[in-house]
Design a protein that fits this description.
The complex is a heterodimer of chains A (602) and B (133). Chain A is built from 23 helices and 7 strands. With 602 residues, chain A is an alpha+beta fold. In chain A, the strands form 2 sheets. A 4-stranded antiparallel beta sheet of chain A has the order 1-6-3-4. In chain A, strands 5-2-7 form a 3-stranded antiparallel beta sheet. In chain A, helix 1 (2-31) crosses helix 9 (159-210). The longest helix of chain A is centred in the first third of the chain and has 52 residues, at 159-210. Chain B has 133 residues and is mainly α. Chain B has helices spanning 31-42, 45-82, 96-102, 105-132, and strands at residues 90-91, 94-95. In chain B, a hairpin with a 2-residue loop joins strand 1 (90-91) and strand 2. The longest helix of chain B has 38 residues, at 45-82. The relative contact order of chain B is 0.10. Residues 1-10 of chain B have low confidence and may be disordered. The chains are: A alpha+beta (602), B mainly alpha (133). At the A-B interface, helix 5, helix 11, helix 13 and helix 21 of A face helix 1, helix 2, helix 3 and helix 4 of B. Chain A: Belongs to the sodium:solute symporter (SSF) (TC 2.A.21) family. Chain A: It comes from Actinokineospora auranticolor. Chain A: The chain crosses the membrane at residues 6-28, 53-74, 80-102, 123-140, 160-178, 190-209, 315-340, 352-376, 404-432, 444-462, 468-490, 497-520, 532-550.
Chain lengths: 602, 133
């Protein structure tokens, strides 16, 4: 078994290096075509809708999707199915209300849109701050996920190596060609990720069904039975962060370390209830014993299978739906890709393709999550459910097949970290370079270095939580800050910059307060109520209300050319009203005259 | 740039004073498109009204489709909460809620997206046609 694991590592290391190499060379090749600020910011707005859709999906399917969704389905069951729905549904909201008008506004970053629409430099600075903050909040779990993956396949290597590897690769690529380089890389990585999750899932399902389903696995508990999952074989778990474990059945296990505040090094009996296990403790379970799970997660399979257990779940579920459906349109790295479309119609078509590509992808992590419940319950103990995608292949097929499948999923996970962080670094660097610095290519590169290294430092310092939960909070932040400004800015004539500033501040501060409270409570014994982990159900309506009320109170400040701006955003592309603001600011003299004189008809 | 003689073929009957008009080098473009486009750009009261009603049409199309999705998905958690036995119902060996949450939403989302794309592009075509006439 030991040598088998070593071989798996070699396969996986080779696969990861291959992904890194492909990413670097693709980025390097397209970097040579990037020479102007517009290349770096929006790839000259010439990306076709199919490639753009693959790039959007490639960028969007982050660690939270590739590892996190399977992990949450594995741990929380039916309620976690809302994550893939929300991740996809967010694009429908984006398509219905934002995609085409946003592109036609001619803006090149989110702060630029705010200024173009509402004519306030102050609002622009505020949104710059939020873009940078959301970008960092989203980047940290990506880097941490990379660390986790490397640590999972090479236990001797510390987590920071994986995080640093991803950060350096991304900064190098963005440095070379900005958006131009990143587009090709991300499109490639979508297809890579789809393959890396679809092929292993397919093979694993075939093996599972071939064994005769649940009945074919030793000691396994059916997924609808009211019993906790049982270990299919003897298992050793090393607890890497302090954890509260709950068990509904008594069990015997051997423990070495600290349990319930006392040192142990012997066989112990755990009765029904919660047991606090401290960092570094080792636990040995025998085959067939019931699995204790992290507190607050469903303990038995029947309640795992059932959606919405109690009214708390109801609140969390609705809150999650709001955050994900409305948060997507506020994510800076998602929006920045929409500026690369040639026109509004292409932006809409891109989104439609994205809906297809995402729907195709999300079937597979759900299947992996369900299979993990049967084969790798020990991950429920350590709380490292995010590792399920990586660990499952070797458990189902402990032979060469499993090794190769494991290597493929590891490669896919790495593609996920790389593409999402590339997109985030590009969007943050674009905003930093044009709003804080002067917008030269040199500034963009400096911004990229900053946007990559600060989150890396944070990722190494902070304690990793569930990837999808942290990401869930950044969705809540986006939904409570940018979503009201975008929706009302595009569709409501009477919005003023004062209203937008007030709404963003109130929404943002509310989410940040709940973020701080949950983080503090995470270090001091999980006392915070659960709804603070996902406060969108409250914060989003409040933010909308504040924007509307404040705007109504400051009607004197409606920008004088509002009607013309609205017409530009909504008029069909054929009429040729698009004025690209990046050309007006960064273009050559020739491009500028072309923009000023004739309308470009398509 | 050339001057456009008044009363060009296809000109709109109107009693406004004569104006100087700007024309692109692209001679294939019909003259009337330019006139109305210029009018849109100049934000005459006619143009303002036309644009406003066009935006309204697009907005309500989006809202209606969003409501379809909102009601469909918004009702699900409540139904699961009120009818907990639903997870015992099995379709092809899979628990019904899992089918409703894990598989069905994706074709539904794509379908609504596709429908919206058709509607929105149709409205835009109508708008351009109206402006060009």
């Amino acid at each position: 078994m030991g040598s088998g694991e070593l071989e798996l590592n070699l396969w996986a290391v080779a696969a990861i290096l291959l992904v890194g190499l492909a990413t670097f060379s693709l980025g390097f090749r397209s970097s040579r075509q990037a020479s102007t600020t517009q290349d770096f910011l929006v790839a000259r707005r010439t990306v076709r809708s199919r490639r753009n859709a693959a790039a959007v999906s490639g960028e969007y399917l982050s660690a939270a999707s590739f590892l996190g969704v399977a992990g949450l389905v594995f741990k929380d069951g039916a309620d976690a199915l809302w994550y893939p729905i929300g991740f996809t549904g967010g694009y429908l909201a984006l398509m219905l209300f934002v995609a085409a008008p946003l592109r036609r506004s001619g803006a090149y970053t989110l702060p630029d849109f705010c200024e173009a629409r509402l004519g306030s430099p102050g609002l622009r600075q505020l949104s710059t701050a939020f873009v940078v903050f959301i970008g960092i909040l989203y980047l940290v779990p990506q880097f941490q996920g990379a660390g986790l993956t490397v640590h999972q396949i090479l236990p001797s290597v510390p987590s920071w190596v994986g995080a640093a590897l991803v950060a350096v690769l991304v900064i190098v690529n963005v440095f070379g060609g900005g958006m131009r380089a990143v587009t090709v890389v991300q499109a490639f990585q979508y297809w890579l990720k789809l393959f890396a999750i679809a092929a292993p899932t397919f093979v694993l399902c075939v093996i599972f069904v071939g064994q005769g389903g649940v009945a074919g696995v030793d000691r396994a508990v059916g997924l609808s039975e009211p019993l906790p999952p049982r270990f299919p074989a003897d298992a050793t778990v090393t607890v890497e962060t302090d954890v509260q474990l709950r068990t509904e059945e008594g069990l015997l296990l051997r423990a070495r370390g600290w349990v319930d505040g006392a040192p142990v090094d012997s066989i112990v009996y755990w009765g029904k209830g919660v047991h606090a296990v401290e960092e570094g403790t080792e636990l040995w379970f025998t085959a067939g014993s019931p699995t204790p799970v992290v507190d607050r997660a469903p303990t038995d399979n029947a309640s795992w299978l059932r959606p919405v257990n109690g009214s708390d779940d109801l609140f969390t579920t609705y809150s999650l739906i709001i955050a994900l459906f409305l948060g997507t349109m506020g994510l800076p790295h998602v929006l920045v890709r929409f500026y690369t479309n040639p026109d509004g119609r292409a932006a809409r078509r891109t989104t439609l393709h994205v809906l297809l590509l995402l729907g195709l992808f999300y079937i597979f992590p759900v299947l992996i999550g369900a299979l993990s419940r049967i084969y790798v319950p020990e991950l429920l103990v350590s709380g490292r459910t995010d590792a399920a995608v990586l660990a499952l292949p070797m458990k189902i097929a402990p032979n060469l097949t499993g090794e190769i499948l494991g290597a493929i999923t590891a490669a896919g996970a790495f593609a996920a970290f790389l593409s999402t962080s590339s997109g985030l670094v590009v969007s943050v660097a674009g905003v930093l370079s044009t709003d804080v610095l002067k917008g030269r290519i040199r500034d963009f590169r400096f911004g990229a270095a900053l946007a990559g290294s600060v989150p890396l430092a944070l990722a190494l310092v902070l304690r990793p939580g569930d990837i999808s939960l942290t990401v869930g909070l950044s969705f809540a932040l986006a939904a409570s800050t940018f979503c009201p400004v975008l929706l009302l800015g595009i569709w409501w004539r009477k919005i003023t910059w004062v209203g937008a500033v007030a709404g963003m501040l109130v929404g943002g501060v509310l989410v940040l307060v709940s973020l701080v409270i949950t983080t503090v409570s995470g270090y001091t014994g999980n006392w915070a109520p659960e709804f603070l982990q996902q406060p969108a159900l409250v914060t989003v309506p409040v933010a909308f209300l504040v924007v509307v009320v404040t705007s109504k109170a400051t009607q004197g400040r409606i920008p004088p050319d509002t009607n013309r701006i609205r017409m530009r955003m909504h008029a069909p592309d054929r009429l040729g009203f698009i004025r690209d603001r990046d050309i007006a600011r960064f273009g050559t003299a020739e491009e500028r005259t072309r923009l000023a004189n004739g309308r470009h008809r398509r | 740039m050339t001057k456009n003689p008044a009363g060009a073929p296809g000109d709109l009957p109107q009693s406004r004073p004569r104006r100087k008009k700007v024309i692109l080098a692209d001679s294939r473009a019909p003259v009337t498109v330019l006139r109305t486009v210029v009018e849109l750009e100049e934000q005459t009261s006619w143009a303002e009204e036309v644009v406003r009603s066009f935006i309204r049409i697009q907005f309500w199309t989006s809202v209606r489709l969003a409501l379809v999705i909102g009601v469909a998905f918004g009702a699900l958690p409540l139904v699961f909460y009120l009818v907990p036995d639903m997870s015992d119902v099995r379709v092809a060996g899979v628990s019904l809620p899992w089918l409703l949450l894990g598989v069905l939403p994706f074709p539904l989302l794509f379908g609504v997206g596709y429908w919206y794309n058709v509607l929105a592009e149709g409205h835009e075509r109508d708008f351009v046609d109206m402006v060009e006439k």
